[in-house]
């Protein structure tokens, strides 16, 4: 049986859209990508695909030759990166954890990132005040504590998909010193993360560096170039 | 094989803890409940069960006669209501949706409640300014739009568990006029919800009213009595 048609509405720089690309790549699904220019969104996008006007979104089951800018009525449309990943994992259970305890531990680590790291990192990268470093380090420590040993082996799962784009970007931007901070603050952050309390964070980063599904769906050079520009104008 | 021991740390009034009670009841799991007094939390709770000091949390697999206030090392402890429900659904898949599309639609409705209703409802109930009604009604309309027809039948699933405590409380508090608002504002809200744009919200409420797993894990009289007091002192 042919797999129903999957169209991903994506944007190269967006870490949320990156989650969807990794999930589709890791699952072995056949899919088409429609690149959405976030600075100049096409007029059809919000009314026809996602009223919230964000990426990613996917369409599932549109007829093979139908217009990707206007899926016919009855096509299943789904926005929100976490839901898209969950949906893909429902279709391709091999990318999800088999053990309920490991799955729950991995979900808790994702929540710790959302609650304790995401906002603090954005603040530090885009405002870069020295006083924002300590709360970020504390959040990264608690996140690192929460990463279950069980997901740091050779297997990749949903936590790698959900966390991957964010953990990877944190290390890229810090290493390349791309932030509204005093020059050298990025590498200084990386150096602060060399302590034993961040062991699992570093292991996760190293694991993600070796993952084809992630590396083949990101373009580091463009990311660095574009974010350097974005921060210049921020 | 005996099921590993499940201990739920709960609080009767808390809608998040209510999710966990419904999930356990609906799944047919055998479980013990430890009631945590949220106004006077026991000293052992945060260090031994949940560092965030919130309910619900569960312990899974503690030895049968071990102390519930101090589960031995190696016991799996899990906080956060959505993760607890997800974990229970991993153990008892019969409470989850089989169809990935229905599951995704239900997850989207849950997200709409979180993003568009939860905060607005809390604001309206606890501040009750007339100007807060319109945004709440708009949020409830968008939420109602998002509820998939497929979950409004006779079957109960994860969306009913996640949304149930909140949808049910909204109708109870509005009907009983329990809020920091002008007297009569609660029934006025219920009356505003009689329009066709809220059809699916009302259907969901009616469905939840008939669900033993929900009704047997809530005490409406105590809820009304306690919240009347809480609002008096708020």
UniProtKB/TrEMBL annotation, chains A, B:
Domain of life: Eukaryota
Annotated GO CC locations: cytoplasm
Domain GST N-terminal: 4-96
InterPro entries assigned: Glutathione-S-Trfase_C_sf, Glutathione_S-Trfase, Glutathione_S-Trfase_N, GST_Omega/HSP26, Thioredoxin-like_sf
Pfam families from the UniProt entry: GST_N_3
Designated name of the protein: GST N-terminal domain-containing protein
């Amino acid at each position: 049986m042919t797999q129903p048609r999957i169209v991903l509405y994506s944007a190269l720089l967006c870490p949320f859209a990156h989650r969807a690309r990794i999930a589709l790549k890791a699952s072995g699904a056949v899919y088409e990508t429609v690149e959405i220019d976030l600075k100049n969104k096409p007029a059809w996008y919000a009314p026809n695909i996602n009223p919230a006007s964000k990426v990613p979104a996917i369409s599932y089951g549109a007829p093979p030759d139908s217009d990707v800018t206007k899926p016919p009525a009855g096509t299943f449309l789904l926005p929100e990166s976490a839901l898209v990943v969950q949906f893909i994992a429902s279709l391709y259970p091999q990318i999800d954890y088999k053990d309920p305890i490991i799955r729950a531990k991995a979900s808790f680590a994702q929540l710790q990132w959302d609650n304790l790291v995401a906002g603090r990192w954005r603040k530090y990268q885009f405002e870069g005040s020295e006083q924002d470093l300590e709360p970020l380090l504390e959040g990264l420590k608690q996140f690192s504590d929460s990463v279950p040993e069980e997901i740091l082996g050779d297997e990749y799962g949903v936590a790698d998909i959900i966390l991957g784009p964010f953990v990877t970007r944190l290390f890229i931007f810090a290493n390349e010193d791309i932030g509204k901070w005093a020059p050298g603050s990025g590498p200084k952050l990386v150096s602060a993360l060399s302590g034993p309390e961040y062991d699992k964070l570093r292991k996760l980063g190293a694991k993600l560096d070796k993952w084809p599904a992630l590396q083949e769906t990101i373009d580091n050079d463009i990311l660095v170039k574009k974010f350097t520009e974005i921060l210049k104008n921020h």
